[in-house]
Amino acid sequence: MASAKLGVGVIGCGTVGGGVVKLLVSEKDHLVRKTGVAVELRRAADLDPEKRAATGLPASVLTADAASLLAEPGIDVVVEVIGGVQPAQSFIETALAAGKHVVTANKELIAKKGPELFALARKHGVTLHFEASACGGIPVIHAFGQSLAANRFEKILGIVNGTTNFILTKMHRAGAEFADVLAEAQRLGYAEADPTADVDGHDAAYKLAILAAMAFDSHFDYREIHTEGIRSISARDIAIAKDYGFVIKLLAIGAAHDDGRVELRVHPVLVPKEHPLAAVSDSFNAVFARGNYVGDVMFYGRGAGALPTASAIVGDIIDLAMHQRGGGTSPRMNFGTLNKAVVPMGEVKSQYYLRLDVRDRPGVLAAIAKIFADFRVSISAVTQEEATGASVELVIFTHEVTEADFQKAVAEIRKLDVVVGVRALIRTQV
Ligand code: HSE
C-alpha cells in the first residue's frame, strides 16, 4: 500500500467528468502500481443532481458546491471539466491560489487566458496541466512540450475537430449535402444542437492556438487566427475533389516563416489523397508535424468522448503523482514564452481551387485569364463541363499565389457580366 497520497476533486460531472470519475474509481489499484502514490477521488461537484447521481459515487463524496471542494485541505489536484470561460476561470484561479494543482480540458479558457493562468500557477508553485484541451486522448501537448521539445517546427497540420471530420467523411462517402449530414449527425448525437463552435471552426482555432504555443514556443492571440468553417462545402465540390484525387478536410495549420513570424489558419483544404491526413476519417483527430530533427511525425486518435478525454486527464494526474513523489512540480508548463507575430492572411501563399458558373459565350475564358494575369495568378488546370443550359461550370486550379492577389482577382472576376456566380474557393496546398 502506498504511503504517499494525492487527493483529487473533480468539478463537473458531465460526459468528461463522468469519464474521469469512472477511471479514477476503476483504475485505483493500477494507478498506485504506476505511480507509487494513492490517487484518491475525494470529491466531485456539479450543480445538476442527475449528473451527480450518474457518477455512481456515494452521496458523501458528491456536492453541488464547487467552492467547498476548492476549500478542502485534503484536495491536492482540482480537475476542471465544466468548459467555457466562467465560472471555470474563477474556479481554477481559486485552486491555484490555494496551492492546488489543476488539470483542465478547457480549450477555450487555455486559448484565451493561458498566459495569465500559467503565471498564477508559477507564482504559487503549482502546475496547470491541459493535455485534454487539444485533441482529447491524443498526447500531443506532452509530445510538443517535452518529448519533441528539442525541435524547431516548420509546420503543424491538424484535423482537430471530430464533428467536422465526421460530417466531411459522411459527405465524401454518401455524396450528401452539408445541411443533411449535419441534421443526421445532430439526430445521432454526434453534433451539438448548436453546432456553431464546431462547424464554423472556432473550436479548431482554440486548439490551434494551444498547439501552436507548444510547437512554436510563443503565445498567440487566437483572434489573429484566420478561421473558416465547413458550411459552404458542397457535395459538388467533394465530387470534383474526388475526381482530381483530393479529399476535403478542415485543417488547422501553423507554419513558421524564416523571419520569425508564424502562419496560423483554420479552413477547408483539398488534401491530396496520398497525404497521411487524407486517411483520417470519421470523428478521429490527427496532428501532422515537421520538426528539424525528428522529421515528419503524426499523431492519431480520438479527439473527444468521455473515456479518451478522461484518459488524457488521468495521464496528467499520473504526471502530478509521479512528480509529487519526487518532491517537485512538473517542469512541463512552457506555454509560449516568446511573442511571435502572426502572418496576415493576405501574405499567406497557397494554391487554389475555384469553381464558377459562367455564360457559355466566346471570350469568357480569355476575360478570366486576363484578370488572373493582371494579379499574377498562374493557372495550373482548367476544366469546363459540356454546356447543358444557359450557363456552364468552370473549375480552375492555380499555382501558388498570395491570398491577397488571389482574392483581388476573384473580386474582379465576380464583376464580369459573363460570370453567373463564384460557387466555391478552396485552398489546395498542405
Ligand atoms: N466538439 C469537439 C469536436 C470536441 O468535435 O472535436 C471537443 O473539443
Description:
This protein has 430 residues and is an alpha/beta fold. The chain folds into three domains: 4-137 and 306-333, Rossmann fold (3-Layer(aba) Sandwich); 146-302, Dihydrodipicolinate Reductase, domain 2 (2-Layer Sandwich), CATH 3.30.360.10; 347-427, Alpha-Beta Plaits. Helix content is 38%, strand content 26%. It is built from 15 helices and 18 strands. The chain has helices at 15-26, 28-35, 49-54, 66-70, 88-97, 107-123, 140-147, 162-174, 178-187, 196-199, 202-216, 235-243, 306-326, 364-374, 403-415, and strands at residues 4-11, 37-45, 62-63, 77-80, 101-104, 128-129, 153-159, 226-227, 246-256, 262-272, 284-291, 295-302, 349-350, 352-359, 379-384, 391-398, 401-402, 419-427. Strands 3-2-1-4-5-6 form a six-stranded parallel beta sheet, sandwiched between helices. Strands 8-10-9-7-11-12 form a six-stranded mixed beta sheet. Bound molecules: L-homoserine (HSE). The site of L-homoserine has 8 residues, from α8. L-homoserine binds next to α8.
